[in-house]
Amino acid sequence: MEERFNEFTLKILMLNRYVGAIKNIEMDEFNLKGIHASILNNLYFNEEITAATLTKNILEDKAAVSRALKELYDKKLIDYCGKKYNAKIILTNSGREIALNVIEKIDKAVAAGGATLTDEKRIIFYEALEIICKNLGAYYRSLEENDESIL
C-alpha cells in the first residue's frame, strides 16, 4: 500500500509541476504568468462570468485570481461589465487574440502529454481519474464530517 501511495502522489505532483512550469514558460512570451493561461482559456470559453465563478472554475486561490485579473485589466486584456464588484468579466480584442494563442499552446502541450496514448487508453485514463477524484472528494468530506461510512 505504501508503494502505491508513493507512486500515486509522486505522479500527481510531477504532473502538477510540469503543467505549472510549462504554463510559466509559454506565458513568458506575453509577459504573463501561468495563472493567466488558466484565466484567459477559461474566459475565452466562458465569457461574461464573475471573478467568483472564475475562481471556482480554475481552482485557484481567490487572492491570486484577484491579483491576476488586476494585471490583465492593467494590460487591457480584460474589462468588466459594470462595477468591478461581482461584475462579469469580458476579454478585450487584445485579450481574445492572446487567449487564442494561449489555447493553441495548451492544445500543443496536451497533445504532447498524451502523444503515445491510444484513444482507448486516454478514455480509460480520464475515467479512472474522474473516479479517483470523486472517491477522494467523498473521503475528504467524510473526514470533515467525522463520517467514515464510505470506508
Instruction: Give the termini distance in whole angstroms.
Output: 16 Å
What portion of residues belong to β-strands? Answer: 5-15%
- What integer value in Å does the Rg equal? 18 Å
Number of strands: 2
> How many DSSP helices?
6
Mean pLDDT: 92
> What's the overall geometry?
globular
**Widest sheet: strand order?**
1-2
Helix content: over 70%
Reported for the largest beta sheet, the result is: 2 strands, antiparallel
- Protein structure class: mainly alpha
Write the element-wise H/E pattern from the N-terminal end onward. HHHHEEHH
Runs in which pLDDT lies below 50 for 5 or more consecutive residues are none
Tell me about this structure.
- There is one protein chain.
- With 151 residues, the chain is mainly α.
- Helices cover 70% and strands 5% of the residues.
- It has helices at residues 2-27, 34-45, 51-58, 62-74, 93-113, 119-144, and strands spanning 78-81, 88-91.
- Strands 1-2 form a two-stranded antiparallel ribbon.
- The longest helix is centred in the N-terminal third of the chain and has 26 residues, at 2-27.
- The model has no long low-confidence stretch (mean pLDDT 92).
Describe the SSE topology.
Layout lengths: L1 H26 L6 H12 L5 H8 L3 H13 L3 E4 L6 E4 L1 H21 L5 H26 L7
Antiparallel strand pairs: 1-2
Key attributes of the depicted protein:
single chain, 151 residues, mainly alpha, 2 strands, 70% helix, 5% strand
Would you summarize the structure shown here?
The chain has 151 residues and is mainly alpha-helical. 70% of the residues lie in helices and 5% in strands.
